[in-house]
Structure to design on (126 residues):
């Protein structure tokens, strides 16, 4: 059983930045891909970003490309999501997810992940 604990959410003005962190435990972190999803009020949960076990492959939702960066530190069992130039439409609960495998052929989807964190709120508002 994988435990995922997110941190780093909060409130920020448009154009601001936040960095989310997700600490993982319970299985060998370095052999599994990791990712982030988000869910805005009244909307379905959507994929945001993912990173393969080595960090060699990354995937992003089109609307966050160039603004968000996913990274991982296998020595610290932690995955990060650096979010820059935040927009009001980025407001959502962000969930850290752990993959069923170390890498994917193409962008992963909802069923490619088997463990979820409790979520952290990100609010972008003036």
């Amino acid at each position: 059983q994988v435990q995922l604990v997110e941190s780093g959410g909060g409130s920020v003005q448009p154009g601001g930045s936040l960095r989310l962190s997700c600490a993982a435990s319970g299985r060998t972190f370095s052999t599994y891909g990791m990712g982030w999803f988000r869910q805005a009020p009244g909307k379905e949960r959507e994929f945001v970003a993912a990173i393969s076990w080595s960090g060699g492959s990354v995937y992003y939702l089109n609307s966050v490309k160039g603004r968000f960066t996913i990274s991982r530190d296998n020595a610290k069992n932690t995955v990060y999501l650096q979010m820059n130039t935040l927009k009001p439409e980025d407001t959502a609960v962000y969930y850290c997810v752990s993959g069923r495998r170390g890498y994917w052929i193409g962008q992963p989807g909802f069923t490619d992940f088997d463990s979820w964190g409790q979520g952290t709120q990100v609010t972008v508002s003036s």
